[in-house]
Write a structure and sequence with these properties.
- The structure is a single chain.
- This protein is of the alpha+beta class.
- It has one domain.
- The protein has 3 helices and 8 strands, in the order ββββαααββββ.
- Strands 1-2-4-3 form a 4-stranded mixed β-sheet.
- The structure holds zinc ion.
């Protein structure tokens, strides 16, 4: 695991009796992966308190011409880094979604619209190569991109859940292949 950035802070908050004390040291760590696509991460995600895992093969797609005007790779890296810092704090350590929402006010990540999952065409062998769904930049309903994913290996259409019940956790392994900003 490569550590891209480590942040630490030392708080000296006054106790109610005004006696200063030393709080715990908080670390935020970013796992930058091994450069290969990580099928279990889309852009980045909180994987433990104080730790976010990034997938740079996904993040670089944000800066492709197809996503011009949309969220950027550097902003998403900042989002993930600050999110790891938040979850290193007691108030957020058990609630990564709350951390995601708070950080999104400063550096927007994405909110996925999972009920918009649509499979690609079924080929002559009955297989599907991937699927799409919509994602909004946090706090900006005018900033929508379509994310396209490819299954690691094509999957028989009959082996997939229905589109309306499909979720990230009940589909075979996939990787992000395109981010396209919707004008
Ligand atoms: Zn987030």
């Amino acid at each position: 695991m490569k550590v891209l950035q480590t942040q630490r802070t030392y708080n000296t908050s006054p106790l109610p009796n005004l006696v200063k004390h030393e709080n715990k040291v908080n670390h935020a760590t970013i796992n930058t992966g091994d450069g290969n696509p990580n099928p279990s991460v889309i852009f980045g995600q909180a994987t433990a308190p104080g730790l976010n895992t990034l997938d740079f093969s996904d993040i670089k797609l944000l800066d492709a011409p197809s996503n011009k005007g949309g969220n950027t790779g550097s902003r998403v890296v900042l989002h993930e880094t600050l999110e790891a810092y938040y979850t290193s704090q007691p108030d957020y350590s058990t609630n990564a979604l709350l951390a995601h929402n708070e950080v999104g006010k400063i550096f927007p990540g994405y909110d996925f619209v999972l009920n918009s999952i649509q499979y690609g065409a079924t080929d002559a062998n009955g297989n599907v190569s991937g699927f799409t769904f919509d994602a909004f930049e946090q706090n900006n309903l005018n900033a929508k991109s379509v994310l396209t994913f490819k299954f690691v290996t094509p999957v028989p259409r009959t082996a997939l859940p229905t589109e309306s019940s499909a979720r990230l956790g009940n589909m075979p392994s996939f990787n992000l292949s395109e981010v396209k900003k919707i004008p």
